């Protein structure tokens, strides 16, 4: 399934299980099914790496900022709405508003073979603004409680310059331990440049 949002200069394509993606009145909606996640455990546990969550991704050109207010209908631990970056099957990253495990939290996962997992700050209610940027051969994650003042969360790479330039970017939903959840993305915005300063709140 392909989808074109008026806010984005590139087409989105659905990956993974059916996310029941829909768009109306400036609001993108996706649904994660039961026990759907994307995570490769770093601890050596005898677990199959979860790699089965609904994603809606496209290929922007050059440096950019992708922004959305993310609202999650939390029902179980680790339900999340995500801005997602994909370079390869074991090279991808998530910026999440996640129930982690019982408080809404901005958290990140960067996967290079195996996933890491890091929490940033907690959020009151079920909404937060998330932003993913590409700046040169790096990606940056920011989050904001009001869409105005941005907190720097993470700067990272996922590959060489050619791989970074070809990255897919977009939206993901997950419900690793639950029966599913609904995520909405509104105030979606695309800016064709990277942030001026990663740490000054802009």
Automatic annotation (TrEMBL):
It comes from the Bacteria. PANTHER family: REGULATION OF ENOLASE PROTEIN 1. Pfam families: DUF1349. InterPro entries: ConA-like_dom_sf, DUF1349, UCP022704. This is DUF1349 domain-containing protein. Transmembrane segments: none annotated. Coiled coil: none annotated. SUPFAM superfamilies: Concanavalin A-like lectins/glucanases.
């Amino acid at each position: 399934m392909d989808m074109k949002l008026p806010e984005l200069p590139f087409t989105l394509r659905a990956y993974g299980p059916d996310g029941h993606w829909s768009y109306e009145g400036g609001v993108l909606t996706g649904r994660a099914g039961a026990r759907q996640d994307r995570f490769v455990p770093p601890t050596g546990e005898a677990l199959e790496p979860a790699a089965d969550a609904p994603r809606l991704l496209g290929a922007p050109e050059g440096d950019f900022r992708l922004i959305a207010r993310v609202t999650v209908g939390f029902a179980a631990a680790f339900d999340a709405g995500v801005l997602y970056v994909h370079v390869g099957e074991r090279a991808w990253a998530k910026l999440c508003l996640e129930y982690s495990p019982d408080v809404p939290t901005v958290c990140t996962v960067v996967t290079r073979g195996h996933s890491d997992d890091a929490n940033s700050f907690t959020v009151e209610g079920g909404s937060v603004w998330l932003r993913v940027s590409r700046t040169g051969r790096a990606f940056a994650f920011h989050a904001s409680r009001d869409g105005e003042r941005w907190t720097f969360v993470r700067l990272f790479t996922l590959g060489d310059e050619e791989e970074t330039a070809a990255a897919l970017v977009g939206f993901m939903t997950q419900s690793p331990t639950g029966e599913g959840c609904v995520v909405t993305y509104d105030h979606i915005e695309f800016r064709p440049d990277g942030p001026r300063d990663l740490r000054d709140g802009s």
